[in-house]
Amino acid sequence: MKSTKTQELLLNLMPMWNYQIAKPFKQLLDEGVSLEMYYCIQMLRWQGGAMTMSQLARQTKMPKQQMTKLVNRLVEQRLVSRTDDLLDRRVINIQLTKEGLEYMDHFLENEGSFSGFLDKLDEEQKEKFRKALEIMFEVFLQTSGDIDPPLVSPEAAKR
């Protein structure tokens, strides 16, 4: 497929994805939790629940100063905890809390998250969409470069 066709498909997909997937998801976020905060929690969850502040900043492609502010907000919400590393005082460890894990479980258990969109699909379309998402996820992981793949697979994380 020509890259111009691929680019055209991506550009056509973006508004539809925004209105049918991204916007409804943003409405589910608890007050005070931004999309960037959600991304950080998701990254921590993928990596087994704990990372250093530097690793989290690198994985989310955020400057450390911005990450510090974001983690401060996550700590205030009790979604993560911050501890100093016992071996190196310069290192700050970030760990998901019980509340953070429960927050993430809320999205997996809430079948209404994307029901407005998914209810419009028949079973065959849902299966095609799921397979397409798996392929997209795999491609994005392969092309991410400096983002480590999840230790927890998306399928295992659902359990």
From TrEMBL:
Sorted alphabetically, which keywords does the UniProt record give?
DNA-binding
Which GO terms fall under biological process for this protein? response to stress
Query: Which part of the chain is the HTH marR-type domain?
Result: 1-138
Say if the entry is tagged with keyword DNA repair.
Answer: no
* Superkingdom of origin organism: Bacteria
One annotated GO molecular function is:
DNA-binding transcription factor activity
* Entry keyword annotation includes ATP-binding: no
Pfam name, any one: MarR_2
Name this polypeptide is given: DNA-binding MarR family transcriptional regulator
Q: Which organism is it from?
A: Catenibacillus scindens
